[in-house]
Amino acid sequence: MWTLINSPETYPFSVALVLMLLIGLLELVSLFTSGFTQSLDGLLPESLLESSPPEVRLPLDEMGAGLRLLDWLYVGKVPLMMLLVIALAVYGAMGWVLQNLFYSVSGSLLNVYLAMVLVAMLSLPMIRLFAAAWYKIMPKDETTAIGADALIGRVGVVVLGIASANQSAQVRVKDQFGQQHYIMAVADGGSDLPQGTVVLLVSRQGHLYHIIENVNANLVD
To answer: Where are the transmembrane segments (predicted)?
Structure first.
């Protein structure tokens, strides 16, 4: 066992497992801070997002090879952060299993580069299997991925902090499906927007949204 732990041939798989744990912790933190997980999903092409309108989503036969692979792996259906955790866990675990089996049979470890390529290919079906299982059990009304720009034009309310031009605050906003999101936003005008202010999302820069006070009573969430 020490040979496996202390060998460069197993380092990539150990790193994958460590990254999986770190990202899991980051995902836990994002539950309280919001923004990061959502901003990752916002980087995806809208043609992959399950929540995109039918006219935006591409039929499978019109997708390129890369988009087909991503769609096959449930990218856009399962939150990207969770899919990354699954991929790292599968890759790291399968790498250790492969090297352990090879060592048991031959008394030596497989070349690290060859092992990385083999494990990458062998991992894809398992990643898809676990992603499909997660997709079936996850609460769709809470975890459906949407494009980050889809929230622009929606009405929200400042729930934590005071939004100013230089300071962000947490805003609660509903998407078109009635799903609530907690995003970080800064004031787009000169006035500060304290907690409880009803606001309108007008633009986005990175993971930060720009908001103004909603003075139109006809605009509701």
So the answer is: 12-32, 78-98, 110-131
**Residue 204, C-beta contacts closer than 8 angstroms, at least 6 positions apart:** 148, 149, 151, 152, 210
Which one, of 209, 127, 205, 206, lies nearest residue 175 by Cα?
209
Alpha carbons within 13 angstroms on the beta-carbon side of residue 27 total: 16
CB neighbour list of residue 71: distance below 8 Å, 6 or more residues apart: 48, 60, 63
**Choice among 43-47, 94-98, 181-185 with the minimum mean pLDDT:** 43-47
pLDDT by residue (tens digit) across 66-94? 777 777 788 877 777 888 889 999 999 99
CATH class name, domain 148-213: mainly beta
Spatial CA neighbour of 7 closest among 108, 93, 92, 91: 108
In the chain, CATH 2.40.50.140 covers: 148-213
Rg (CA), the chain: 22
> What's this model's pTM, rounded to 2 decimal places?
0.53
Q: What local confidence, expressed as pLDDT, does residue 140 receive?
A: 52
